[in-house]
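Archive transcription. Copying these from loose printouts into the bound notebook so they stop getting lost. Printout 1 of 2:
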Amino acid sequence: MHHAGKCRHLHGHSVKAAITVAAQELNRQGMVCDFSDIKASANAFIEEQLDHNFLVYQDDPIISWLTQNNERFMPLNEHPTAEVLAKMIYLYMKDQGFAIEQVTLWETDSSYACYREP
């Protein structure tokens, strides 16, 4: 909502996420964590929450239509930008106990956003 560019129109993206982990010390296997554990956890969140879901700002007037037509959607308290999606993935992975340093989310081959906490 309230965006002046062409992205003001309803549209979707196929995105790619890179999850960076970091630690002061490695575990007994010489890793920060197992990449397969990161992949399984991130994929579960993405498939359950984001994949084939309409992400929409909570004040968008289209929500009433989506509700009336029994469409799947997720209202967000922020606009569903690449930055916000990177933050969502970051916070989920952090909550799962991973030593997350940063999440980078590519919206296109040349456009991406990163989220990390100070």
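Printout 2 of 2:
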Amino acid sequence: MKLTFLFHLLLLTGALHAQQTVNEAVIQIKTDISNPNDAGGAPPVTGDGERVMIRMGEGETKAKIFFKNGMTKIESDMGMGTSQMIVDSKTKTTTTLFEAMGRKMGFYSTDDEMQKMMNGRDSGRQRTQQFTPETFIEYLSETKKIAGMVCNKAIIRYKNRKDEEVQQTVWYSPEFVLGEGFRMRDMMRIASIPGLNKLKGFPMEFETTRPNGAKVFYQVTKVDLNAKIDDKVFVIPKDYDVKPMSEMGNGGFQFRMNGQ
């Protein structure tokens, strides 16, 4: 009888600590960017080769991530304006919207169109290739609380473009991961850390330095795993001037803040 009770107790304890795969959630994050080497000029290029569509200055940016059954929406307040990125994992379509200085505009593209654009851009010059190095993750016993959740420490090791070894510390929650259709790279374009999608949990906090010297601090500030999201959240607003990415020009999307 005692052995049977102990067996059921162990099963219950394991169930209480089992990782959740969440298909509906709202996650709030903040990022703080500082770049002592920023002298202006062309928009920077992210680690996956995509040119940033609107130049984001230094300072804090707050974002809210809505995820429901393969649909993702990321709302960001950049101080000078707001942006929305809506990703449909079923149609593999991404719509990016910007609002600033009274203007509302944006573009949409499929994953295939984006890849073709990157492959065909400036054939006379060396193209920026997607950076996907082999990564190794070391899980440590150190913990701390972030957004009310007990998070674990991990170190992601990889070699950068200069073949130099990088050790990136990441705090993650082992309690949950987002379900099918969620793409970590959509949320992490601002950081471009290889291997985040391989973590045994959801990334909650890290600090990193971009190749151009910009320092990025990322932190989850609130997690709601019991959210009830209205499907209207993922509907493209009708008051935005939204065009195909193919009509945005070879240099990427340029949002001119002076209205010219």
